[in-house]
Write a structure and sequence with these properties.
It holds the Pfam family OTCace. Helices cover 43% and strands 14% of the residues. The protein is of the alpha/beta class. It has two domains: 135 residues, Aspartate/ornithine carbamoyltransferase (Rossmann fold), CATH 3.40.50.1370; 158 residues, 3-Layer(aba) Sandwich (Rossmann fold), CATH 3.40.50.1370. The strands form two sheets. The protein has a five-stranded parallel β-sheet with strand order 7-6-5-8-9. A four-stranded parallel β-sheet has the order 2-1-3-4, sandwiched between helices. The structure holds phosphoric acid mono(formamide)ester and norvaline.
Protein backbone atom coordinates (compact mmCIF):
# COMPACT_ATOMS: atom_id res chain seq x y z
CA UNK A 1 0.00 0.00 0.00
CA UNK A 2 1.39 3.39 -1.01
CA UNK A 3 1.64 5.84 1.90
CA UNK A 4 0.21 9.27 1.16
CA UNK A 5 -0.07 12.44 3.29
CA UNK A 6 -3.53 13.83 2.67
CA UNK A 7 -4.44 14.76 6.23
CA UNK A 8 -2.51 15.17 9.46
CA UNK A 9 -3.70 11.90 10.96
CA UNK A 10 -2.27 9.89 8.07
CA UNK A 11 0.79 9.80 10.37
CA UNK A 12 0.72 7.95 13.69
CA UNK A 13 2.14 9.80 16.72
CA UNK A 14 5.41 7.85 16.38
CA UNK A 15 5.66 8.59 12.65
CA UNK A 16 4.96 12.29 13.18
CA UNK A 17 7.70 12.44 15.83
CA UNK A 18 10.12 10.57 13.55
CA UNK A 19 9.54 13.09 10.73
CA UNK A 20 10.03 16.05 13.10
CA UNK A 21 13.30 14.51 14.37
CA UNK A 22 14.47 14.09 10.79
CA UNK A 23 13.46 17.67 9.97
CA UNK A 24 15.69 18.95 12.79
CA UNK A 25 18.58 16.85 11.45
CA UNK A 26 18.05 18.20 7.94
CA UNK A 27 17.88 21.73 9.31
CA UNK A 28 21.32 21.21 10.88
CA UNK A 29 22.76 19.64 7.71
CA UNK A 30 20.68 20.71 4.73
CA UNK A 31 22.26 18.43 2.14
CA UNK A 32 22.74 15.36 4.39
CA UNK A 33 20.55 13.05 2.28
CA UNK A 34 19.81 13.05 -1.44
CA UNK A 35 17.21 10.35 -2.10
CA UNK A 36 16.04 12.14 -5.26
CA UNK A 37 19.54 12.27 -6.80
CA UNK A 38 19.46 11.34 -10.44
CA UNK A 39 17.67 13.68 -10.48
CA UNK A 40 14.17 12.28 -10.03
CA UNK A 41 11.29 14.66 -10.59
CA UNK A 42 8.54 15.61 -8.13
CA UNK A 43 5.38 17.21 -9.56
CA UNK A 44 4.07 20.15 -7.51
CA UNK A 45 0.61 21.19 -8.72
CA UNK A 46 -1.22 24.39 -7.78
CA UNK A 47 -4.94 25.08 -8.22
CA UNK A 48 -4.55 28.06 -5.86
CA UNK A 49 -1.94 30.78 -5.30
CA UNK A 50 1.14 30.18 -3.17
CA UNK A 51 4.46 31.71 -2.15
CA UNK A 52 5.78 29.63 0.78
CA UNK A 53 4.57 26.24 -0.43
CA UNK A 54 5.84 26.76 -3.96
CA UNK A 55 9.27 27.98 -2.86
CA UNK A 56 9.79 25.48 -0.03
CA UNK A 57 8.85 22.46 -2.14
CA UNK A 58 10.96 23.66 -5.10
CA UNK A 59 14.00 24.36 -2.91
CA UNK A 60 13.48 21.25 -0.77
CA UNK A 61 13.22 18.90 -3.76
CA UNK A 62 16.40 20.43 -5.21
CA UNK A 63 18.17 20.06 -1.82
CA UNK A 64 17.29 16.35 -1.90
CA UNK A 65 18.95 16.01 -5.31
CA UNK A 66 15.71 16.07 -7.27
CA UNK A 67 14.06 18.27 -9.84
CA UNK A 68 10.77 20.06 -9.04
CA UNK A 69 8.18 20.35 -11.79
CA UNK A 70 5.80 23.18 -10.83
CA UNK A 71 2.45 22.88 -12.62
CA UNK A 72 -0.37 25.45 -12.60
CA UNK A 73 -3.72 23.84 -13.21
CA UNK A 74 -4.72 26.97 -15.10
CA UNK A 75 -2.54 25.76 -17.97
CA UNK A 76 -2.78 21.98 -17.55
CA UNK A 77 -5.57 19.51 -18.39
CA UNK A 78 -6.24 18.67 -14.70
CA UNK A 79 -9.51 20.15 -13.47
CA UNK A 80 -10.64 20.95 -16.98
CA UNK A 81 -10.51 18.10 -19.43
CA UNK A 82 -8.91 15.43 -17.24
CA UNK A 83 -9.74 13.75 -13.95
CA UNK A 84 -7.38 13.56 -10.97
CA UNK A 85 -7.07 9.80 -11.33
CA UNK A 86 -6.15 9.93 -15.04
CA UNK A 87 -3.61 12.67 -14.27
CA UNK A 88 -2.16 10.48 -11.52
CA UNK A 89 -1.80 7.51 -13.90
CA UNK A 90 0.14 9.70 -16.33
CA UNK A 91 2.39 11.30 -13.70
CA UNK A 92 3.31 8.13 -11.79
CA UNK A 93 5.26 6.76 -14.79
CA UNK A 94 7.56 9.80 -14.67
CA UNK A 95 7.68 11.35 -11.19
CA UNK A 96 8.68 10.13 -7.71
CA UNK A 97 5.86 11.93 -5.86
CA UNK A 98 2.93 14.27 -6.47
CA UNK A 99 2.33 17.37 -4.35
CA UNK A 100 -1.02 19.08 -4.90
CA UNK A 101 -2.67 22.27 -3.58
CA UNK A 102 -6.35 22.13 -4.39
CA UNK A 103 -9.90 22.83 -3.18
CA UNK A 104 -11.79 19.67 -2.21
CA UNK A 105 -10.26 16.86 -0.18
CA UNK A 106 -12.09 14.39 -2.45
CA UNK A 107 -9.85 15.29 -5.39
CA UNK A 108 -6.75 14.43 -3.35
CA UNK A 109 -8.30 11.12 -2.34
CA UNK A 110 -9.09 10.35 -5.97
CA UNK A 111 -5.52 11.24 -6.98
CA UNK A 112 -4.06 9.05 -4.22
CA UNK A 113 -6.36 6.15 -5.00
CA UNK A 114 -5.30 6.24 -8.63
CA UNK A 115 -1.53 6.13 -8.16
CA UNK A 116 1.42 4.15 -6.82
CA UNK A 117 3.54 7.22 -5.96
CA UNK A 118 3.01 9.22 -2.76
CA UNK A 119 0.52 12.10 -2.95
CA UNK A 120 1.05 15.04 -0.56
CA UNK A 121 -1.65 17.57 0.33
CA UNK A 122 -0.08 21.02 -0.10
CA UNK A 123 -3.35 22.60 1.25
CA UNK A 124 -6.97 21.78 0.59
CA UNK A 125 -10.11 23.50 1.82
CA UNK A 126 -10.13 21.02 4.73
CA UNK A 127 -6.50 20.58 5.82
CA UNK A 128 -2.99 22.05 5.56
CA UNK A 129 -0.91 19.18 6.98
CA UNK A 130 2.49 20.27 5.59
CA UNK A 131 2.07 23.60 7.38
CA UNK A 132 1.33 21.75 10.61
CA UNK A 133 4.56 19.74 10.42
CA UNK A 134 6.40 23.06 10.13
CA UNK A 135 4.37 24.59 12.96
CA UNK A 136 5.00 21.66 15.31
CA UNK A 137 8.71 21.79 14.47
CA UNK A 138 8.74 25.51 15.30
CA UNK A 139 6.93 25.00 18.61
CA UNK A 140 9.35 22.21 19.50
CA UNK A 141 12.34 24.44 18.75
CA UNK A 142 11.00 27.36 20.78
CA UNK A 143 9.20 25.58 23.62
CA UNK A 144 10.51 22.00 23.84
CA UNK A 145 8.51 18.77 23.97
CA UNK A 146 5.15 19.08 22.28
CA UNK A 147 3.17 16.74 24.49
CA UNK A 148 1.25 18.57 27.18
CA UNK A 149 1.53 22.05 25.64
CA UNK A 150 -1.65 24.06 25.12
CA UNK A 151 -2.54 25.88 21.90
CA UNK A 152 -5.38 28.26 21.15
CA UNK A 153 -6.42 28.77 17.51
CA UNK A 154 -8.69 31.81 17.12
CA UNK A 155 -11.02 32.78 14.29
CA UNK A 156 -12.14 30.58 11.41
CA UNK A 157 -12.03 27.17 13.07
CA UNK A 158 -13.61 25.56 10.01
CA UNK A 159 -10.69 26.48 7.76
CA UNK A 160 -7.86 24.16 6.81
CA UNK A 161 -5.54 25.48 9.56
CA UNK A 162 -8.08 25.11 12.38
CA UNK A 163 -8.89 21.57 11.34
CA UNK A 164 -5.26 20.59 10.83
CA UNK A 165 -4.37 21.98 14.27
CA UNK A 166 -6.97 19.67 15.78
CA UNK A 167 -5.62 16.53 14.12
CA UNK A 168 -1.89 17.28 14.22
CA UNK A 169 -1.97 18.77 17.72
CA UNK A 170 -3.89 15.81 19.10
CA UNK A 171 -1.43 13.45 17.37
CA UNK A 172 1.42 15.26 19.15
CA UNK A 173 -0.34 14.91 22.54
CA UNK A 174 -1.11 18.61 22.80
CA UNK A 175 -4.16 20.35 24.26
CA UNK A 176 -5.85 22.07 21.32
CA UNK A 177 -8.41 24.82 21.86
CA UNK A 178 -10.36 26.30 18.96
CA UNK A 179 -12.27 29.55 19.51
CA UNK A 180 -14.73 30.49 16.80
CA UNK A 181 -18.29 31.80 16.41
CA UNK A 182 -21.22 29.69 15.24
CA UNK A 183 -20.86 28.92 11.55
CA UNK A 184 -17.05 28.81 11.77
CA UNK A 185 -16.57 25.66 13.84
CA UNK A 186 -14.60 22.62 12.66
CA UNK A 187 -16.69 19.75 11.32
CA UNK A 188 -18.09 17.27 13.84
CA UNK A 189 -16.20 14.48 12.05
CA UNK A 190 -12.81 16.19 12.46
CA UNK A 191 -13.54 17.04 16.11
CA UNK A 192 -14.48 13.39 16.72
CA UNK A 193 -11.34 12.11 14.99
CA UNK A 194 -9.11 14.52 16.92
CA UNK A 195 -10.82 13.62 20.21
CA UNK A 196 -10.24 9.92 19.57
CA UNK A 197 -6.54 10.56 18.81
CA UNK A 198 -6.17 12.77 21.90
CA UNK A 199 -7.56 9.99 24.09
CA UNK A 200 -4.66 7.79 23.00
CA UNK A 201 -1.91 10.46 23.15
CA UNK A 202 -2.86 12.22 26.39
CA UNK A 203 -3.81 15.41 24.55
CA UNK A 204 -7.23 17.04 24.48
CA UNK A 205 -9.56 18.97 22.23
CA UNK A 206 -11.86 21.80 23.33
CA UNK A 207 -14.12 24.16 21.38
CA UNK A 208 -14.89 27.66 22.67
CA UNK A 209 -16.96 30.56 21.45
CA UNK A 210 -15.31 33.04 23.84
CA UNK A 211 -11.78 33.86 22.61
CA UNK A 212 -10.75 35.30 25.99
CA UNK A 213 -11.58 32.05 27.72
CA UNK A 214 -9.74 30.05 25.05
CA UNK A 215 -6.43 31.95 25.30
CA UNK A 216 -6.26 31.92 29.12
CA UNK A 217 -2.88 30.47 30.15
CA UNK A 218 -1.97 28.91 26.78
CA UNK A 219 1.56 28.34 25.48
CA UNK A 220 0.87 29.35 21.88
CA UNK A 221 -1.75 31.65 20.32
CA UNK A 222 -2.45 31.01 16.64
CA UNK A 223 -4.64 32.59 14.02
CA UNK A 224 -5.09 32.55 10.25
CA UNK A 225 -6.70 34.76 7.64
CA UNK A 226 -10.43 35.26 8.05
CA UNK A 227 -10.84 34.99 4.26
CA UNK A 228 -9.28 31.76 3.03
CA UNK A 229 -8.70 31.18 -0.67
CA UNK A 230 -12.04 30.42 -2.29
CA UNK A 231 -14.01 32.46 0.31
CA UNK A 232 -13.37 35.90 -1.19
CA UNK A 233 -17.06 36.53 -1.92
CA UNK A 234 -17.88 36.15 1.79
CA UNK A 235 -15.27 38.73 2.82
CA UNK A 236 -17.62 41.42 4.19
CA UNK A 237 -19.65 38.91 6.24
CA UNK A 238 -16.55 37.20 7.56
CA UNK A 239 -14.91 40.43 8.71
CA UNK A 240 -18.09 41.24 10.63
CA UNK A 241 -18.53 37.77 12.13
CA UNK A 242 -14.91 37.28 13.23
CA UNK A 243 -14.04 40.75 14.61
CA UNK A 244 -14.11 39.56 18.25
CA UNK A 245 -11.42 36.98 17.53
CA UNK A 246 -8.65 39.42 16.53
CA UNK A 247 -5.36 38.66 18.30
CA UNK A 248 -4.11 41.89 19.86
CA UNK A 249 -1.83 42.74 22.78
CA UNK A 250 -4.70 42.45 25.29
CA UNK A 251 -5.48 38.97 24.00
CA UNK A 252 -1.80 37.92 24.20
CA UNK A 253 -1.63 39.23 27.78
CA UNK A 254 -4.13 36.52 28.80
CA UNK A 255 -1.87 33.73 27.53
CA UNK A 256 1.01 32.29 29.58
CA UNK A 257 3.84 34.83 30.18
CA UNK A 258 6.33 34.25 27.33
CA UNK A 259 3.67 32.63 25.15
CA UNK A 260 4.35 32.61 21.43
CA UNK A 261 2.26 33.85 18.51
CA UNK A 262 2.05 31.95 15.21
CA UNK A 263 0.43 32.50 11.80
CA UNK A 264 0.96 30.39 8.67
CA UNK A 265 0.92 33.55 6.49
CA UNK A 266 -0.12 35.38 4.38
CA UNK A 267 -1.55 37.69 7.07
CA UNK A 268 -3.99 40.58 6.96
CA UNK A 269 -2.56 42.91 9.62
CA UNK A 270 -5.33 44.75 11.45
CA UNK A 271 -7.87 42.02 10.82
CA UNK A 272 -7.05 38.62 12.39
CA UNK A 273 -3.97 40.04 14.15
CA UNK A 274 -2.65 43.47 14.99
CA UNK A 275 0.74 44.56 13.65
CA UNK A 276 2.23 44.96 17.15
CA UNK A 277 1.60 41.26 17.86
CA UNK A 278 2.59 39.69 14.53
CA UNK A 279 5.67 41.91 14.25
CA UNK A 280 6.41 41.85 17.99
CA UNK A 281 8.77 39.82 20.21
CA UNK A 282 6.37 36.94 20.89
CA UNK A 283 5.88 36.22 17.19
CA UNK A 284 7.79 33.30 15.66
CA UNK A 285 6.31 33.56 12.16
CA UNK A 286 9.59 33.75 10.23
CA UNK A 287 10.96 30.57 11.82
CA UNK A 288 7.57 29.00 11.11
CA UNK A 289 7.81 29.97 7.42
CA UNK A 290 11.41 28.71 7.13
CA UNK A 291 10.47 25.42 8.74
CA UNK A 292 8.20 24.59 5.80
CA UNK A 293 11.42 23.72 3.96
CA UNK A 294 12.88 21.41 6.60
CA UNK A 295 9.60 19.73 7.53
CA UNK A 296 8.61 18.99 3.93
CA UNK A 297 12.05 17.63 3.09
CA UNK A 298 11.76 15.25 6.04
CA UNK A 299 8.26 14.26 4.91
CA UNK A 300 9.48 13.54 1.37
CA UNK A 301 12.46 11.50 2.63
CA UNK A 302 10.16 9.51 4.93
CA UNK A 303 7.48 8.87 2.29
CA UNK A 304 10.04 7.83 -0.33
CA UNK A 305 11.63 5.41 2.16
CA UNK A 306 8.23 3.97 3.11
CA UNK A 307 7.21 3.49 -0.51
CA UNK A 308 10.48 2.02 -1.73
N1 LIG B 1 1.39 29.24 4.50
C1 LIG B 1 1.28 28.95 3.18
O1 LIG B 1 0.91 27.82 2.77
O2 LIG B 1 1.64 29.96 2.35
P1 LIG B 1 1.47 30.04 0.76
O3 LIG B 1 0.00 30.15 0.47
O4 LIG B 1 2.25 31.25 0.35
O5 LIG B 1 2.03 28.77 0.17
N1 LIG C 1 -6.50 29.29 5.42
C1 LIG C 1 -5.65 29.90 4.40
C2 LIG C 1 -4.27 29.37 4.50
C3 LIG C 1 -3.31 29.97 3.51
C4 LIG C 1 -1.95 29.36 3.57
C5 LIG C 1 -6.25 29.67 3.03
O1 LIG C 1 -6.72 28.56 2.77
O2 LIG C 1 -6.27 30.61 2.23
Amino acid sequence: MTRHFLRDDDLSPAEQAEILDLALELKRDRFAVRPLAGPQTVAVIFDKSSTRTRVSFAVGIADLGGSPLIISTANSQLGGKETASDTARVLERQVAAIVWRTYGQAGLEEMAHGTTVPVINALSDDFHPCQLLADLLTIREHRGDLAGQTLAFLGDGACNMGQSYLLAGATAGMHVRIASPAGYTPTDAVVADATAIALRTGGSVALFTDPLEAVAGVDVVITDTWVSMGKEEEKATRLGDLGRYRVDADMMALAKPGAHFMHCLPADRGYEVTADVIDGPQSIIWDEAENRLHAQKALLVWLLAHNA
